[in-house]
Amino acid sequence: MSSSMMGTTALGQNLRAGTIAKLGSTKRIQELNGMLHGNRPNIDITRARVYTQVYRETEGMPNITRRYRAAAAVYRAMSDTIYDHEQLVGWPTKRIRGASFAIEMHAHWMAEDLPEVRNRVYAPFEITDEDYEELETDLIPYWKNKTMAVQWGYHVSNYEWNRAQFGGISDVSNYLCTNGSHFIPRWTDLLEHGFVKYYEEAKSLLAALDPNDPASIDKRIFYNGIIEVLEGIRNWGERLSASCSRKAAVEKDSVRKQELENMADMMKRVPWGPATSFYDAMETVWAACFFLFVEGAGPSVTWGRMDQYLYPYYKADIEKGILTPEGALELIEELYIRVNTNEWFQSSQMAYIFGGYYRYPHNDVGGLDENGQDATNELSYLFLRAMRYVRTTAPNLSVLIHQKTPDSLLREACELAAEGMGHPSFFNVEGLYAMLKHRAAGPDGYSNYTRKEIMKFGSPIGCVEPGVEGKQYGHTDAGIINVAGAALMAVTNGVMPIESDNIFSGKVITFESGVPNSFKTFEQFYDAVKSQIKYAVEECHSNLIICEKLLAEQFNLPTFTILLDGALEKAVDATAGSAKVNIGPTIQMVGFATMADSVAAVKKVVFDDQEASLQDVCDACMNNFKGYEVLRAKLIAAPKFGNDDDYVDTIASDLWNWFSKCVTKLKMYRGNYCDAAIQMVANVGYGSLLGATPDGRLSGMPVSDTMSASPNADRSGPAAAARSYSKLDYGAYANGTMLNMWITQSEMVTV
Amino acid sequence: MADIITIRDIPLNCPDATYVQPEYKEAGMNNFTNLVRTMLNDYGVYHVQFNTISKDTLIDAKAHPEKYPTLIVRVAGYSVYWTDLAERVQDDIISRTEHVF
Q1: How far apart are CA A297 and CA A303, in angstroms?
Q2: Could you tell me which of A380, A186, A395 has the C-alpha nearest to residue A271?
Q3: Under an 8 A CB cutoff, do A744 and B100 touch?
Q4: ipTM score here?
Q5: Please, which pLDDT band fits residue B2 given cuts at 50, 70 and 90?
Q6: Chain B residues with beta carbon closer than 8 angstroms to that of A722
Q7: Could you tell me which of A721, A474, A500, A442 has the C-alpha nearest to residue A581?
Q8: Which residues on chain B are in Cβ contact (under 8 Å) with A8?
Q9: What three-state secondary structure class fits A260?
Q10: For chain A, which ranges sit under pLDDT 70?
């Protein structure tokens, strides 16, 4: 393989495999960081093999039994390897940086992409020849016609199935393989009691069933399955403890021998039982996090308010004199290194669109406590500081800012931001509360959360999506509407321009909302834009509810269910709606500023200045502005979002609200309402599928990123950009909003 | 609000650490913290995150990835190694507006 074929992905990994990435506050951490980077992303077929075996053995049995039995068997099959230097125990896969992918979600595309997965330019994975053969000849053939995506195809036409995955306007492709994600387990309760609490609870609920009650039939199946899964988790802890003991027995170094014996003892306590120390608690949050990454297929299982629920353990250990801030820092750094093992395995098309191997928990610091007081503590600072030392891509670290946030915490966070890694995210606590208050409750409704629950447990998940620890379940990273495309469709009467790299080029990809010359006023055109947005949202929704039904009926998630408050009492799986607040799947927009700039450009050039007709703009977009260079220059000169200019900002704000209105009136499969969001990277991928747009953007170029201004359109300084962003109603986006800004490093530090 | 003693008051003792703290420009850091406070607390923006690596560095990193194996940037809601990104994603990040105070 030539170096050019390997791409930069392989190059960066080669270089990081040496000593360059051995970063950390102690020698131990430097070695562990080196070990992480010494491993390449690799495919681990353990989970796929176990699921296939269990499904073959259980044909004809209730679906819940099959799913739960497979999940339990995975715990019994998980690696028990203990590596040098580590203090935390257990890995999700046989090798570090393994992808224990969910074959029942992925098999349909794997059949096609497997031959290139080792050598593809973006996100290549290693796999042994034996495992490759088993996948190719046995595991993929078993599953490739059973995945959720294939079954969804039975409900829609082939045209609709393709359009929703490859058309790039109303899209569900990011959602199809990511069952089980964006979830905050009930960490506080798990740390306090351990999994044993849920085991005893399931046993007593099973014993209390009345066999003459028809409802007991499904409940018995449920509890027996949950008990089997929990026995799998107990077995995992016992095996890992034994593995630590075996390693201790042959260890020559007396210090390391003692560490290994301590680890063996710890694994007898947690995660099965209550955490008795900060060290125990760190093991529980590590183990349960990767359990969910193995069982689920999505990109983010979340830690939430980690500085809050870990603080009692930290404080007690400091007071007892058995922990120092430096010792806690070292454990935090090890945790940060370990979570980078969860590689996201995705199709070649998705790897091309997204790039990188991201799959990460989100942890945040700061914020308010349940009484509205500043919640900052010593751990808040340590979680931020650890990232400076260890320099990892995961987790997604954030800080919750409010009026009472101490200046010193904000300064600590800004010093981390000045390092240039993109860490941390900054969140406005009041905005988070406003979103959670109306989470999944429709345009005028209120969520089931109490105010205290929001204040104590409210936290962002994944990228930016508001969640509540242990009380919320549902997919937050689901349907995607390319609103820049919807604005273009209002100009082209629903046709994707020929000059575009799209399998629907030259064809109607949404619906015919009117030929350009039929719009006599801006208001008529504007109505067409709105109807195109509405159409795309509703098409997306119609696909999502089918998929959710399939997930609820066939793709259940027992460990998620165990870690959801109240789900065991209800005897209902998380996928089937046992959360206190069910949410999603949500619908998000991509290309917000491109949409606003496009509509403003049409208003300015066509309707206000009358320098061209809408037909001219349509022809220009259809031809990727070839022969329309003068018109393009006029469109580019029109006002752009991000400069505190009301000409375009009022359009942006109004369409922002319109999108939310279209989304939040829709009911989802589990009875909740849909929520709107802006959160994605996919501006590059969706831009590549889209023809030229009326803001002057050329065909195939990225659409605007997240809710940020178009590239280089915000030319009036950061304060003017901030004022444009201040004109939007954040409460209308209960699934979160994301904003990227770029402040050059030399402003803050000497470089 | 009770005062808490943090690592900013009592420096950590990490003799083996690889990290070297940069020299901060106080005026710029003040502008930065004020921008965050204003956007979130006064303007009501829900979330913001920052890329801070200079555009010149990113352009150089695209041309000479071998010099930047550990360069991490923010893409959407996550951080990623520069060298793991698709070229078109690199171009998109480079094309964004680099603000100064």
Answers
A1: 17
A2: A186
A3: yes
A4: 0.98
A5: low
A6: 35, 38-39, 43, 45
A7: A474
A8: 65, 83-85, 87
A9: helix
A10: 1-9, 354-356, 681
